[in-house]
Design a protein that fits this description.
heterodimer; A: alpha/beta; four-stranded antiparallel β-sheet; 36% helix; globular; B: 219 residues; mainly alpha
């Protein structure tokens, strides 16, 4: 303000350069410029739900959703080997195949860069895959930059997952494998976390059906979410690997397989999964059925659901 | 005139206007709290996309508009606290279907309308239009109760908007920051029903027991 009123050049210059804000500004520029110089932004758009950026960085092409707390990579593709699953949680999702290894009909909630449907489509060329993605822009970006293709067997539906699942229930659709991958990490679609939602999802599962949910492992939400899944599905496999912030819930309509069964299936899939950079044989020992959460916490329901407020506690 | 008598007369407008202002504050609080909970209520059926919020806000604006219009008309003949209180009681009753039959209403809409945009629009009009329109009666009627002469009417209306919009702001904040963390949606709605009934009773009681108080005549 002072500089605006007193506009003699010398005075202005000394005001700017001597100001502590200038020093702060310079240091911020020094921190920001070199890091962003490594990555190349190849696409940017504002969709109805978020900012979408496609970046290339050290041999990887990544889909980034900009969020208030800094960028988060949603999905990445290795440019030299596009089949390789770059993110641990995407690889962990494949652990579902150790519980249900012959899915004919699959439902995937959340497209991202499309690496999960691409992989499953290759592994099971005769299977039918429905994908539900709320954001049309994400679908366009996945097609254009991440090799995602729709076929007669792999179909994308633009819809809110809760609405799609409720409607699929009315239409008596059934799936052998449902993958819930709708959580981008920052804002949580709360209506996809409740007992009512999980019950509607459970109704879509066949007798052999399996729900694989990529969920939260930090904050108070971990307890509430675990209690909610437990209430609807009973015991489930809690799949957490050291060194990742993710946990994947494997909730089955069948009794849970033994460690021995998991290991022998992992052996069978080992070679196929190698192509995707997934060390599936290391998975079974991290699939636990132990209750390591506070079971006294309240289940989340459509009536009671402060998921976003609970998630905030971890920061 | 005795001392005590004049004191009552001097205090009476103050009691009267603080009663009307606090009731207007409460209705502002409740309107926005219901609107925020509306997003929660519709999400399981229609998602939480921007169009669901669009439906909710559209219906709230429309119903308030209708409420303001009718409330203004109703204030023309014999404005009194008793009728003012009956608005609160009616609003409380009008909230009950939302609590009791909300899910079956949304089920019916969900089955009949595939497009979640129109589904959420129809569902929010069925669930929220009537109670919100009734709460909309309160604002213009409060102005009529407090205005004593034309010169001060703008000031009084401004003060009322201030108080009821402040109520709305606090209702929004309280609901989204705390109430949903502590209570279930229906518990919050039921509490509102109770609070609205308390408002109704206090207005009706004041109408009976406050010494006759005439709102300003037409000047």
């Amino acid at each position: 303000m002072i500089a605006l009123i007193d506009y003699r050049p010398g005075r202005l210059r000394s005001l700017i350069f001597k100001s502590p804000y200038f020093a702060i500004f310079v240091s911020i520029v020094c921190i920001l410029v070199p890091t962003s110089a490594f990555s190349k932004e190849i696409h940017k758009e504002k969709s109805l739900y978020r900012n979408i950026i496609v970046k290339e960085q050290s041999g990887r092409r990544c889909l980034v959703f900009t969020l208030k707390r800094g960028d988060r990579n949603q999905t990445c593709m290795d440019l030299e080997n596009p089949r390789k699953l770059v993110f641990p949680y995407v690889r962990m999702t494949m652990g579902g195949l150790l519980v249900n290894s012959k899915p004919d009909r699959m439902l995937i909630i959340g497209l991202g860069g499309g690496s999960i449907p691409l992989t499953l489509g290759e592994l099971f060329p005769n299977a039918h895959i429905d994908i539900v993605e709320i954001d049309e822009a994400v679908i366009r970006v996945a097609r254009k930059y991440f090799n995602f293709v729709e076929t007669s067997r792999v179909q994308v539906h633009v819809a809110d997952a809760r609405v799609y699942i409720k409607r699929a229930g009315l239409q008596q659709k059934h799936y052998d494998l449902i993958i819930l991958d709708a959580f981008t990490g920052d804002y949580i679609p709360e209506h996809l976390m409740t007992t009512e939602f999980l019950q509607e999802t459970k109704q879509l599962l066949t007798r052999e059906g399996l729900l694989v949910a990529n969920t939260f492992s930090t904050s108070e939400l971990y307890d509430h979410e675990s209690v909610t899944y437990q209430e609807v599905f009973g015991d489930f496999l809690n799949f957490r690997m050291p060194s990742t912030g993710n946990r994947v819930i494997l909730a089955s309509m069948q009794p849970l397989p033994s460690l021995f069964a998991l290991r022998s299936k992992a052996k069978r899939f080992s070679a196929a999964m190698d192509n995707y950079g997934v060390d599936i044989e290391s998975f079974p020992k991290y699939m636990s059925r132990k209750i390591d959460w506070d079971a006294s916490k309240r289940a989340l329901t459509d009536q009671y659901n402060p998921a976003n407020l609970l998630q905030g506690d971890s920061y | 005139m005795t001392n005590s008598g004049s004191e009552i007369l001097a205090k009476q407008p103050l009691v009267f206007s603080s009663l009307v202002l606090s009731l207007a504050f409460t209705s502002g609080f409740i309107i926005m709290s219901i609107e925020l909970l509306g997003g929660r209520i519709l999400a399981p059926y229609f998602g939480s996309s921007i169009y669901v919020w669009g439906s909710i806000i559209t219906i709230f604006m429309l119903s308030l508009a209708v409420g303001y219009l009718i409330g203004g008309r109703l204030s023309l003949s014999n404005p009194n606290l008793g009728r003012y209180g009956s608005f609160y009681a009616t609003a409380a009753l009008a909230l009950l279907p939302l609590i009791l039959f909300g899910e079956s209403i949304m089920d019916a809409v969900f089955v009949r309308i595939e497009d979640p945009r129109y589904g959420s629009l129809v569902a929010s009009s069925l669930l929220f239009f009537v109670p919100t329109a009734i709460l909309g009666l309160i604002a213009p009627y409060s102005v009529r109760l407090l205005v004593e002469n034309a010169r001060e009417s703008g000031k009084i209306a401004g003060g009322l908007y201030f108080v009821s919009t402040l109520g709305s702001a606090i209702g929004t904040l309280a609901t989204s920051f705390y109430l949903i963390l502590w209570f279930e949606v229906n518990q919050i709605l039921l509490t509102m029903v109770v609070v609205l009934f308390i408002c109704a009773i206090s207005a009706i009681a004041a109408n009976r027991y406050l010494p006759d108080f005439e709102p300003g005549s037409d000047t």
